[in-house]
Amino acid sequence: MTTLTEVAHHAGVTPATVSNVLRNRGKVGAATRERVLAAVAELGYRPNLTARALAEGRAPTLALMVSSIANPFYPEFALEAERAARRHGHFLLVCNTDNDSNVGSAYLDRIAGTLSQGVLVMNADLHFDDLLKTQRRGASVVLCMWEKPDQPPGLPCIAVDFRQAGRLAAQHLLDLGHRRIGAIVGSEPDGVQAARYVGLVDALRDTDPSLIATLGTETAYVEDNVEGGYAATLALLDASPDLTAIFVSNDFPALGVLHAAADRGLRVPEDLSVIGITDIHWARLARPALTTVAVPTAQAAQMAVDLVLELIHAPMEEPPTRIAGEPWLVVRQSTGPVPRKG
What is the pTM of this model? Predict the structure, then answer.
């Protein structure tokens, strides 16, 4: 691998001059600059970004921690975050914790403050104390897509009102006449998607409090994936065959609901309506296409990158909570009026 010293020797200048040319710093004559760039091209020199980061105490990357890269929502967020980071001259390092807090802690220990000065955290099952420790080591931390805007987490965050998303999804089913609604939640009852379920309860209570009575026995808490949605649907239909709609807290398990309904011989939406939340790309490709509540993923990613860079350059005494735009209903083919009896 060609070194900066070899480039300098080839161009007949000092290593400092080569460094100034590559970083567009200092006063370097046009002829000297051209000679250096020609030497760089001829020798195929590539800067050692890690060495530069260590020398300058400034990392060229931002880290994004996600719980499972297999969940299509996270790559979609990562794409938007990478675009935002690139516009600011940074690289984005995606760290997949594989739903293991120990893996996440290891990433934080090895990356934060060295390879990356800023860490974006997406539902990565990380211990709060580990994130605070990361901050104390000098790396900025921003929680992304925080689901409870009215309950700041004590760390800088970009929040989205997922309770409102749940309310919108439920209200759509209620407006179509559904009253026998099952629910599938892609987390534990007190987990990251709990606010979406609270939105469902809000809408049911506002329409008819008696609708909540059976909701507890017709709610399944599952892993946030297609398989979880599939298995939960079969169990709900076995226990309550008169359900006419299923509310799903996330699009990924909602795809499993569509598969389970098909395997049971149910037509969607004629026999069973299905609605999700987030509006991942796969929701548009499903057959039938999935009705969902979209959230401002691209805006939240941009805001998260902007905030972490602000914090890197000027730490704030009070951790800010910034709220991305409102969720909105996207009606497709998986929801329809409640089936007529007989």
Answer: 0.83
